[in-house]
Amino acid sequence: MKLSLLTLPLGLALSFATTSAFAFDGTINFSGKITSATCPIEIVNPESGAVSNLVPMGEVDVSEFTSSGTEVGGRGFQMRISPDSNCLTDKNKLNATVTFTSVQGGAGEYYGIKRLPGAAEGIAVAIKDNTGNFIPTGTASTVYPLSEDDPTLMYFVASYISTAASVGAGPADADVNFRVDIH
């Protein structure tokens, strides 16, 4: 009996020794760069040329919304990228897409209105790209070619869209985040 208890630890020790015979060593290299460069994107009013992150949507009467999905009050805006900014560091990457995301949420594919006391109800903001295609929240826009010599203006249109059969009057402000991917 003493003999078999002694062979068990000896057998375990030998199995560990044979396992380490198949071990391999190697090295993984990581390479990158940390920069402080930023890429300023300007929001431009195409009618006046004014630079501001505020796109005035104006006033729309509730009677203009006849059913769910009715778009009213389109307002154009542009996003400008200057060639001398830090945005175009790689001259092989001269295309951009823009992804908008709703800050307020709660409007499905559209961009939700701020939930303030007395705010409009049954309404959201819709954004379309320069081809007239709707851009759902979290989805990339069409590709915009970038100029390496002149400022690039990426054109969009925002409008109100009814999300219910009837719309309630009130302030209809929305915040929308954006991300510009240059590729």
UniProtKB/TrEMBL annotation:
InterPro entries named in the record: Adhesion_dom_fimbrial (IPR000259), Adhesion_dom_fimbrial_sf (IPR036937), Adhesion_dom_sf (IPR008966), Bact_Fimbrial_Adh_Pro (IPR050263)
Keyword tags: Fimbrium, Signal
Domain Fimbrial-type adhesion: 28-182
Places the protein is found: Fimbrium
Signal sequence coordinates: 1-23
Stated family: Belongs to the fimbrial protein family.
Protein name (Swiss-Prot/TrEMBL): Type 1 fimbrial protein
Organism: Pseudomonas saxonica
Native organism taxonomy: Bacteria, Pseudomonadati, Pseudomonadota, Gammaproteobacteria, Pseudomonadales
